[in-house]
Design a protein that fits this description.
With about 230 residues, this protein is of the alpha/beta class. It has one domain: 3-Layer(aba) Sandwich (Rossmann fold), CATH 3.40.50. It is about 40% helix and about 20% strand. A seven-stranded mixed β-sheet has the order 3-2-1-4-5-7-6. Strand 6 and strand 7 form a beta hairpin. The longest helix has 12 residues. The chain is globular. It binds S-adenosylmethionine. The site of S-adenosylmethionine has 18 residues, from helix 4.
Amino acid sequence: MRRWRRAYYDQFSAVYDRFVALHSSDRQGNLRAYLAEKTGVSSGQRALDICTGTGAVLKMLVDRTGPDGLAVGVDFSRGMLAVAKTKLASRKGAFLVQADAGHLPFKSNVFDAVTCAHAFYELKGDTQDACLKDVERVLKTSKPFLMMEHELPRHRLIRLLFYIRLLSMGAKRAFQILKKEKERLESHFESVRKLPTPSGNSKIWVGIVGRDGKRPDGATSSGGNN
Ligand SMILES: C[S@@+](CC[C@H](N)C(=O)[O-])C[C@H]1O[C@@H](n2cnc3c(N)ncnc32)[C@H](O)[C@@H]1O
């Protein structure tokens, strides 16, 4: 199944940027720049963008972390990463890694911020939970995970299409997305808040990793993949 999804994104990568330019209100990349700004990362720090796609957010992150820092983009699609590579070819401090969002190949407590733009709900099944666990693990204490997602569309027809897309993920998953988004993040992060975006069409959830890796359930995040 994952192989087919990867193949789908590999094909999609050829037109993805044009598709965004046609259908998104973020034609100038302002939304993604806003997301990068809200990470609070600065020169010399380390940021991670999961499901980076063609690197639109990564480009904004490396502008902030600079040549002495590290901005890493992870995606499982070779096609998407190939497009991202062309955009970031000359950027010192930017790195692309092919990996699954549920198995981040990094040491624990190494990143100053993690972002995920318009991609989290495209992750399948338990990959979403595995991903949140891993994000929590790779983030340093008190540092943020920023997840940007679409708000419920205001236009009735588009809202209907949005609901259909959610239902295609299964009724349980759709209910979680619509009604339990905050609670879900709260089981991984010490504090969770929602930021509006300037367009109002998207929202950003910000989850902060607790002190000493402590999670709300009292457990501590442990070292993992590396
Ligand atoms: C809608 S695109 C979003 C791309 C980018 N974040 C942006 O803002 O334009 C979703 C991306 O998630 C990636 N993706 C989907 N499932 C994944 C997984 N399990 N592991 C890693 N990447 C995944 C796809 O390859 C694709 O590049």
